[in-house]
Design brief:
By secondary structure, this protein is of the alpha/beta class. It has 15 helices and 13 strands. The protein binds 4'-deoxy-4'-aminopyridoxal-5'-phosphate (PMP).
């Protein structure tokens, strides 16, 4: 077996979901909505299966979807992309991340990662033969320390992987922090792989800033998006990689041997969805932020210290500030077993455990699930505080 993959255990996500299934716990660990996406987009996918074509679409994605991606980002984010040379459709953002790392890295290269980080970044860059150097974010601000950032870059650095809005901290990277990363990328001739899958899930009137728009980064950024997150249908696994022509060329070479293509009916439906008026996305944000507020209020009334959540499907509670002196992992395991509530410990997103104890909860759930989940969190707190 490959040594890297053989050495990896089950992730905490599998462990928590497994325990939730076994114990019948309410699962606020899982990061997906308890509702389905817009009916007309689902109907567009169904129609496309019946009407066809159902054979291999072009390897870079259907022209219709690639054009829709370019038009969508021009309209919503003011980013101008040439759909033919700068947009590739992938089977989810996960595939786009793998293709980007494989396309950019050579053995011996270094990659700067920010903790907390999404779980695929580290194993996939290691599989490409690279090593990681970490920069840590901490609550409550989750901001970049410029000295730590500068220290992470070396003559071997080839790429940086960033995620904004950031899962699990639910924070947005401000323009100043994107600029700090951009300065280092330009100085060290590096590529930014910018995971922007949560770009539409931003609340309270905030806008998304793409790394593509940071100074000097238009030619150095692979921006990654996910239709699953945009349309509240995480199982759809349709992603987009947007990058300057030379980067796209390399990206496509890796993509062609990973999945080659993505189901044609989903591409048709996502193209339809991307062309919808801005109100569709505003309605999604309004719904999600109402659910965020409901869960936050219910947890506060159970005595929890809840951190602000500016984006994503998640909010965090600070265990120590809620009177619970356990590690995040110990709390999460005991909470699912003893109080029937599944959460995700933040340490799962760090290479070495952080010096704070937070757990992540998903608020993209029905009111009834959120209310019952908060009540069980209250029970967990009474057992452990
Ligand atoms: N990046 C981040 C930060 C995510 O949170 C997720 C999904 N949870 C992904 C990538 C994967 O997206 P997809 O389902 O489109 O592969």
């Amino acid at each position: 077996m490959n040594r890297l993959f053989a050495s990896l255990g089950d992730t905490i996500f599998d462990v928590m979901s497994g325990l939730a299934r076994e114990t019948g716990a309410i699962n606020l660990g899982q990061g997906f909505p308890e509702w389905d996406g817009p009916q007309d987009i689902r109907e567009a996918a169904a129609r496309a299966v019946i009407e066809g074509p159902n054979q291999y679409p072009p390897m870079r994605g259907t022209p219709q979807l690639r054009q829709a991606v370019a038009e969508h980002y021009a309209r919503i984010q003011g980013v101008t992309l040439d759909w033919q040379s700068e947009v590739t459709v992938t089977s989810g953002a996960t595939e786009a991340l793998a293709a980007a790392l494989l396309a950019v890295l050579n053995p011996g290269d270094e990659v700067v990662l920010f903790e907390p980080m999404y779980d695929s970044y580290l194993p996939m860059l290691q599989r490409a033969g690279a090593t990681a150097r970490f920069v840590r974010f901490s609550p409550p601000d989750w901001r970049i320390d410029p000295a730590a950032l500068a220290a992470a870059f070396t003559p071997k650095t080839r790429a940086v992987v960033l995620n904004t809005p950031l899962n699990p901290s639910a924070s947005l990277m401000p323009a100043e922090d994107l600029t700090l990363i951009a300065e280092q990328c330009v100085k060290h001739d590096c590529i930014a792989i910018s995971d922007e899958v949560w770009e539409h899930c931003v609340f309270d009137g905030a806008g998304h800033i793409s790394m593509l728009t940071a100074p000097g980064m238009r030619e150095r950024t692979i921006k990654i998006g996910s239709a699953g997150k945009m349309f509240s249908m995480t199982g759809w696994k349709v992603g987009f990689a947007c990058a300057a022509p030379a980067l796209t060329h390399a990206f496509v070479r890796a993509h062609q041997y990973l999945t080659f293509t993505t189901p044609p009916n989903l591409q048709t439906a996502v193209a339809y969805g991307l062309a919808q008026p801005t109100q569709l996305f505003e309605a999604m944000r309004a719904k999600l932020s109402a659910h965020r507020d409901r869960l936050a209020a219910a947890l506060r009334s159970e005595g929890f210290h809840v951190l602000p959540a500016a984006g994503t499907y998640f909010l965090a509670v600070d265990l120590a500030k809620s009177g619970i002196r356990l590690t995040d992992k110990d709390f999460a395991i005991r909470a699912v077993k003893e109080a029937g509530i599944a959460t995700i410990p933040f340490s799962a997103f760090y290479n070495t455990p952080p010096d704070f104890n937070l757990v992540r909860l998903c608020f993209a759930k029905s009111d009834a699930t959120l209310d019952a989940g908060a009540e069980r969190m209250g029970k967990a707190r009474r057992l452990m505080a």
